[in-house]
Specification:
The protein is of the alpha/beta class. It is built from 15 helices and 16 strands.
Length: 450
């Protein structure tokens, strides 16, 4: 029997019609439906890995890690809110819905975030009591679907995030397959049980930035101007969307790049709509600078954040904080290698995240099946997440100290160099060893000593 990876001598695979493309055409022809999945873009795009830091030596003076402080705190929502959010670390937990995730997973996220002094976010589908109880700081998402929308829960939140777009699917809504709509999910979302649901892609009560400004004032009045109002955008026309979010009255802009994950949507969305996080951060900072609102309106960046190095690079480019989603689920125990045999039974494997939208996650995280969800101990999962967040924070501090910074927010673009022409052009960071930024006129200044 011929092995699937066998390539007869002399045959060339098409770069345009590779075997993966041929397989997808055949699948579409046989089924008549488009492919959906969770997670984020799998294609290689310029990312924070394409940037490096210029550590201190002679021209800059490093800090000693064992005796010199490097602070990590951040305040979000200083523009209008009476009670801005005070975080101990510049890393938050992104919005992930109850429905997409189990109640145990939502509780674990709250526990982990609270242990290290940061916030978590509700996501589509509303606020669960377990999540509110275990989250010291909880951000309530207001989404186009209005699934689970409850004014009483909104008033219980420490901040409100108006979601206009998501990095994995800007311009489109997500999906929740019927097998994940349990009795509790159906009740919270006012949906029929066991029926596939598609989230709306735009809000029903406004059509543009002028209407959004009215809605933000309405939310402030509902909450007595106490809590910050975030506006979340998917990375597409980022410069203009950031301008409009600020002009509509946002306290915080949350920017989600195309490497961000999703519970489920069309794969064509995930791979072909939106722009990478790297250029989006630069565009958002340029918009804030244009309005003289950089650091006055805070910028939270998400979409493919995995390590303290990613966080440090985003902060150096001008972000105030970063948010993690997929990485947080992995920290809870998702895609663990010891579960690989069970992942293979549902048509995937540990590390791939394919088919988890079906609600059969053996880790008990992205499921509504009670027997699976009970596998996740929220206390253990929360502890693991807290450990991961601590490591990310220490990594960020290590880099900041190496650059001579006593606070992670003192990192700046001058501390960075790009390793590829694409990253240099997108981030507007000089190519390593040069002072050249593609598209910019070169100068005679030394790249290492600017």
């Amino acid at each position: 029997m011929m092995q699937s990876n066998y390539s007869p001598e002399g045959l060339r695979e098409s770069a345009t019609f590779g075997r993966d493309v041929i397989h997808e055409i055949q699948r579409a022809a046989q089924t008549g439906i488009y492919d959906i999945r969770g997670w984020g873009a799998k294609r290689r795009v310029p990312h924070f890995d394409d940037l490096v830091f210029l550590g201190a030596s002679m021209s800059r003076y490093p800090l000693e890690g064992y005796r010199e402080r490097c602070d990590t705190d951040v305040v979000l929502g200083t523009r209008y809110a009476k009670n801005p959010i005070h975080l101990d670390i510049p890393i938050t937990i992104a919005g992930m819905s109850f429905g997409s995730l189990s109640a145990q997973a939502k509780e674990a996220l709250g526990r982990g975030a609270s242990e290290v002094g940061t916030s978590t976010t509700t996501g589509d589908g509303g606020m669960t009591p377990e999540e509110r109880e275990q989250s010291r700081i909880l951000v309530y998402q207001l989404l186009p679907s209005r699934y689970g929308m409850n004014p009483d829960d909104l008033r219980k939140a420490d901040a409100i995030e108006v979601v206009l777009g998501q990095g994995a699917k800007p311009g489109g809504g997500g999906m929740l397959l019927g097998q994940k709509i349990s009795d509790r999910v159906a009740q919270m979302r006012t949906l029929p049980k066991d029926i596939d649901q598609r989230s709306a892609c735009r809000h029903p009560d406004w059509t543009g930035p002028d209407d959004l400004a009215i809605k933000i004032v309405e939310l402030r009045e509902i909450t007595d101007w106490q809590v910050p109002i975030y506006v979340k955008i998917g990375a597409t026309r980022t410069y203009y969307d950031t301008l409009l979010a600020v002009k509509a009255g946002a306290d915080v802009v949350v920017l989600d790049g195309m490497q961000g994950g999703t519970g489920a949507t069309q794969e064509v969305f995930i791979e072909h709509v939106g722009i990478p996080t790297l250029p989006a951060v630069r565009q958002a900072v340029e918009a804030l600078d244009e309005l003289d609102m950089h650091r006055k309106v805070q910028l939270v960046v998400s979409g493919g954040i995995r390590s303290g190095a990613d966080v440090a690079k985003a902060l150096a480019m001008g972000a105030d904080a970063c948010s993690i989603g997929t990485a947080a689920l992995i920290a809870l125990g998702d895609n663990s290698p010891h579960l690989d045999p069970e992942y293979r039974k549902i048509g995937t494997a540990a590390g791939f995240y394919d088919d988890l939208q079906d609600g059969q996650d053996p880790a008990g995280i992205s499921t509504q099946t009670d027997t699976l969800a009970q596998r996740l101990d929220p206390v253990v999962g929360g502890r693991q997440l807290a450990n991961y967040l601590r490591v990310m924070t220490m990594e960020c501090q290590t880099i900041a100290r190496a650059c001579g910074k006593s606070h992670v927010h003192n990192l700046e673009p001058e501390d960075l160099a790009a390793l590829t022409i694409e990253a240099a052009a997108m981030a507007k960071i000089p190519l390593a060893g040069t002072d050249w930024i593609p598209g910019n006129t070169p100068t005679n200044k030394g790249a290492c000593c600017d």
